[in-house]
Amino acid sequence: MDTLLALKPLLTALVLPTASGLLLMALVLLWVWRRHAHKRPSSVHLPVAGGLLVCAGLWLLSCPAVALWLSLHLLPQVKPTTPEALLRHKVQAIVVLGGGVEQHAPEYEGPNLPPDSMARLLYGMHLAQTTHLPLGYTGGVGWAGAPDQTPEAQVAAHVLARLHGPALRWQESLSRDTRENAQLTAALLRQDGVQRIALVTHAWHMPRSVRQFEAAGLDVTPAPMGYVHSDLQPLLQWLPNAFALRDSSWILREWLGLRLT
Question: Global pTM?
Answer without folding.
Answer: 0.84
